[in-house]
Design goal:
Elements: H1 3-24, E1 28-33, E2 36-41, E3 47-53, E4 58-63, E5 66-73, E6 76-79, H2 86-97
Antiparallel strand pairs: 1-2, 2-3, 3-4, 4-5, 5-6
């Protein structure tokens, strides 16, 4: 994939994440700067970082549970270590970081 295509795909992904958060009303804040999106769980301040890695053609996610590298496979971002689609992975790691009893956010 060319870098311009990669950036378009990642831009669309990050916009979809922002829209989902905005529509959900979840106690979750986001900030994007220089291709890095930081999600902050307001209740406890924990963070999940989503970053683009154009040289590798990957999207990386850093969470309390670990670091995850996703490749664009077919039409989905897929985590190489877990086999999860990025949105499923993101829902899971955020659920792990939200306080107990909080409704999980699904992308």
């Amino acid at each position: 994939m060319k870098e311009s295509e990669f950036n378009t795909q990642v831009d669309e992904l990050m916009l979809a994440i922002e829209e989902t958060i905005d529509e959900s009303g979840a106690d979750l804040d986001y900030e994007t700067s220089s291709g890095v999106m930081t999600l902050t769980v307001e209740a406890n301040g924990s963070k999940v970082i989503i970053s683009r890695q154009p040289a590798l053609g990957q999207v990386w996610i850093a969470a309390k549970s670990g670091g995850y590298h996703c490749d664009y496979v077919g039409s989905e971002w897929v985590c190489g270590s877990t086999g999860e689609i990025l949105t499923v992975l993101l829902s899971r790691v955020l659920a792990e970081q939200f306080p107990v009893g909080t409704e999980p956010l699904e992308f």
